[in-house]
Design goal:
Bound molecules: adenosine-5'-diphosphate
CATH architecture of the largest domain: 3-Layer(aba) Sandwich
Number of helices: 28
Distance between the termini: 43 Å
Largest sheet: 7 strands, parallel
Number of strands: 17
Strand content: 5-15%
Number of domains: 4
Length: 605
């Protein structure tokens, strides 16, 4: 029986025609009353896993969520879809609290979102006693990795959730997270006292994300290029330091992009104002520190740029994963330099956090950044998935933007030997000048124009050679020392390769081939498919209709309809309510509430 019921529920309330991978299984576990742990990547559709069963079951489901703003969005969306839901947290006035309390007594809600403090913190007795009169169907803990010190986002208030077992005896607990490591999973289970939980771990590959990684040379020029590919679209730019965030946000504003800074140095009030502006489409771009930015989730983020490398692939996955949560194409561009990794080492060292584990994570991040191979494969395998596809058509390598060198070993040896010849006392730019045979003042003054390595790579550009240097550094053949003026040195492995050409089997180097200039946008397969037959003008028109409605109702636009839904409307151009109901993302309530406005806009077009 539940199979058809769940199907009906997701179609009627959400307008969805099918389940995403593991959603059905996760929902069945809820309906069966088994404890469970569900690990799905960002955008994998975790919310529906507890929302749909909550609608099907009698009683009220408690949803524990760490951020007040996310709670509000989810509740607004649910109510917009016709699902009775409410939230209970410190943002409510006392009369609002009384209203929710009365609603609970009457059994009015299927879902109640609560903060962990409310449920298990100090003074939670009154809340628990308020629940005593009603039937709690289950408890869902969103962002459950916050309970684990091994996660990257530990929150002390989550620790208390272990008390739930005693406070709500006999009620099943379900944990949802996007953090995949087995250690975090075990920790979640122990901390919550789960009994024999069913575990579901989804695939971490996000085929709709287009991954690119380029060495940093002229950052602003590189940013202009990516912004041109995404004019008018939503994006996040991550920087390592607050200073860079402020500087970039100001510069972008000067170039006419609506960009706002977001970091821990701003007041709460400023941060929430900037977040609101981003969510309500008054700003297109948020510039944030890599250490910050949970809560700036907007489902139609079309690009995430890292203007500096994060400190681990876990962080990269989480941050870049904020792109394309609606399943449509999005670009994740990493602009890195070995200086970033040096910065992290210094910062971690200063805080006494430069453990062996932290260093290993940094090295893995560096290897990804400078890697020559399919990036979807790299990420999948790093997170313990097998990647069976040949050629993802969704990364710089598979799109042929990286041109592997035909003779990587001689190329590497030329560069290494030049580093040796200049006495391991110069940086990449100087080494590049010598290799290109460019007799700059500095090169001549140092007598380097007479070196045997002078002019060994006459055809290469400076950027190209710098790219190789980054790759050789990531592979552990070169070392870049010093802070302000990094100097290139050889590592033992580098020396070995100079002595013995066979010492590094499988060496790969590649040169960057910028996205083709003749194509207005370089597209992944996913992108090409998702625009197939879509009337772009109509899509833009529908977005502005949506924006007007959102403004008048004071909610973020994606609470009205997702981009994916608008794109499908602009593809099939429905001409009746029935036809509109066939569009994915249009449920009965939405069709009744908004159908006429959107149908009129389509007709007029
Ligand atoms: P997560 O919490 O795992 O990051 P969300 O629950 O926010 O992901 O879901 C991501 C997006 O996918 C949302 O826009 C949601 O509406 C959409 N979605 C979820 N499940 C389905 C489904 N079965 N069919 C279509 N869209 C879905």
């Amino acid at each position: 029986m539940p199979a058809t019921t769940l199907q009906n529920v997701i179609s009627r309330y959400w307008g969805y025609t099918s389940f995403r991978p593991l959603q059905r299984e996760a929902m069945d576990a809820v309906l069966a009353g088994r404890d469970s742990i569900v690990v799905l990547p960002t955008g994998g559709g975790k919310s529906l896993c507890f929302q749909a069963p909550a609608v099907v079951q009698d009683g009220v489901a408690l949803i524990v969520s760490p951020l007040i703003s996310l709670m509000k969005d989810q509740v607004d969306t649910l109510v917009g879809n016709g699902v009775p839901a409410a939230l209970y947290n410190s943002s409510l006035s006392s009369s609002e609290k009384a209203g929710v309390s009365a609603g609970l007594k009457e059994g009015r809600y299927r879902l109640l979102y609560v903060s962990p403090e409310r449920l298990v913190g100090e003074g939670s007795e009154s809340f628990i006693s308020m629940l005593s009169g009603c039937r709690v169907s289950f408890v869902a803990i969103d962002e459950a990795h916050c309970i684990s010190q091994w996660g990257h986002d530990f929150r002390p208030e989550y620790r208390q959730l272990g008390r739930l077992r005693d406070l709500l005896p006999g009620v099943a607990l379900h944990a949802y997270t996007a953090t995949a490591t087995a250690r975090v999973r075990r920790d979640i289970s122990t901390q919550l006292g789960l009994s024999d939980p069913v575990e579901f771990v989804g695939s971490f590959d996000r085929p709709n994300l287009l991954y690119r990684s380029i060495p940093r040379n002229t950052l602003k020029k590189q940013l202009v290029e990516v912004l041109e590919r995404h004019r008018g679209e939503a994006g996040i730019i991550y920087c390592i330091s607050r200073r860079e965030v402020d500087a970039l946000a100001a510069w972008l504003t000067g170039t006419g992009v609506t960009a706002l800074p977001y970091h821990a140095g701003l007041s709460d009030e400023e941060r929430s104002r900037h977040q609101d502006a981003f969510l309500s489409e008054r700003a297109d771009v948020i510039v944030a520190t890599v250490a910050f930015g949970m809560g700036i989730d907007r489902s139609d983020v079309r690009f995430v740029v890292h203007a500096g490398a994060p400190r681990s692939l876990e962080h990269y996955q989480q941050e870049s994963g904020r792109a394309g949560r609606d399943g449509l194409e999005a670009e994740c561009l990493l602009i890195y330099s070995s200086a970033d990794f040096m910065k992290w080492r210094i910062m971690l060292e200063r805080n006494g956090e430069l453990t062996e584990a932290a260093q290993a994570l940094l090295r893995q991040m560096e290897r990804y950044a400078a890697g020559v191979g399919c990036r979807h494969r790299h990420l999948s395998e790093y997170f313990g998935d097998r990647y069976v596809k040949e050629g993802c058509a969704g990364c710089d390598y598979c799109l042929n933007e990286l041109e592997p060198s035909k003779d990587p070993v001689p190329l590497a040896r030329k560069i290494l030997s030049c580093v040796a010849r200049v006495g391991q006392r110069f940086g990449a730019t100087h080494v590049a000048s010598v290799l290109r045979g460019h007799a700059s003042d500095q090169v001549v003054a140092r007598g380097h124009a007479g070196l045997s390595t002078f002019g060994l790579l006459p055809e290469a550009s400076v950027a190209e050679i710098r790219g190789y240097v980054e790759q050789l550094t990531a592979l552990g053949l070169l070392l870049q020392t010093g802070d302000a003026y990094p100097v290139l040195q050889l590592t033992n492995r580098g020396l070995d390769l100079l002595k013995d050409a066979a010492s590094f089997p499988g060496l790969r180097l590649a040169r960057q081939r910028p996205p083709r200039k003749d194509a207005p946008r370089t597209r992944s397969r996913v992108e090409a498919e998702s625009w197939l037959d879509v009337d772009r003008d109509l899509f833009d028109r529908l977005r502005s209709v949506r924006l007007d409605i959102a403004r008048s109702r004071g909610v973020p636009p994606y609470v009205i309809f997702h981009d994916a839904t608008l794109r499908e409307m602009a593809r099939v151009r429905p001409d009746s309510i029935d036809a509109l109901l066939q569009v994915r993302g249009v449920g009965a309530r939405k069709a009744e509430d908004l159908g006429d406005v959107f149908l009129a806009a389509i007709r007029e077009h």
